[in-house]
Amino acid sequence: MKLLLSLLLSLAAITTAYASDWLSRIDDDRRVCRLSIPGTHDACTGYGFVAQDTLAGNYIACTQQLDISAQWAVGVRAFDLRPDVLTTQPAKDPNAKYRKHHKDDDQPKRTLQIYHGEFATRQTFNGVFDVLRDSLAAHPTEFAIIIMQHERSSHRDGSHWEAMIDYALAENSDLLVDFRPDLTVGQLRGRILVLSRDTYRPTPRGGYIDGWRFDAAVDWQQPATMRGYAMKGVLCVQDFYNMTWEGGTTAKLAAIERLLRVANSAEVAAKYPDMWFINHTSGFKYTSTEYTAEPVSTSEGYRANAADTNAFLAKLIKGRMTTGLVMMDFAGVDRSGEHDVMGRKLVNAVINSNF
Fold first, then answer.
1. Do residues 58 and 297 make contact, with C-beta atoms less than 8 angstroms apart?
2. pTM for the whole thing?
């Protein structure tokens, strides 16, 4: 029994070490666009939600069980972030008249919080960069890709978003890489590529994505576009996410498989040799009006979808192939709630398809 336990612990340690440095096994001259990279949709929901959003957030908006550090440890290298401005008004001080007053005491505090819809997670945009900076320092053969968008809401004042994002990225400029379609692993090692679906300055500190699609068509002949400071590229993205209607899951699975085939098509490679690919297994099957007037997604709906889609794509991946960035829910765990979400299985399948 002791020998078996020792072997199991050794295997776990080897698996963790492998996942933590899996990019070290890839040659510097491999193009990033031809890799298979596991990623997380709404990556920061694994931190939980701020106090006032905990109940509703856990019921409606949870798509991950692990935080960024734990996701990194299992091999995730792409992270979907949805920052917006969290404004906190100054608390009233009953002893204010006895204290020296500063003009800043009356100013609201603004933070770039990571949201999922209306719900604020317990992680900030700057906090994610702190985690990734430490992870890259410990594992310099690796890199990270951030896909972000402004998580707008009519209930929040996001007017400071552009300036705050630009400032936060400037503070981390030593880590950032400019997008180019033929970017190689060697050029990205130890650094971060930030791809934003919303603009925050005329030229990006990484790349901008235009033409993001949410349908199931996967039309590679009408791709989205990507642009850095000087170079442009093309992107085929599948982000069909609402499976609540009859036939929705069937359409989602077909879309996942279609993008996988496109990513490995000789015809596509001949026309667009540096095309990038993003394939979402994420999405939801159920909605609820428990906390909202209109039907919205639920965490159980995300789990139920992951149980269908993660296992499906993991089974499709055979041998060495290109999956592109695979953005999944419940990455790194095979069981969440009452569902076999197979997030660890899919992460491993995506990583292994590089070799």
1. no
2. 0.93
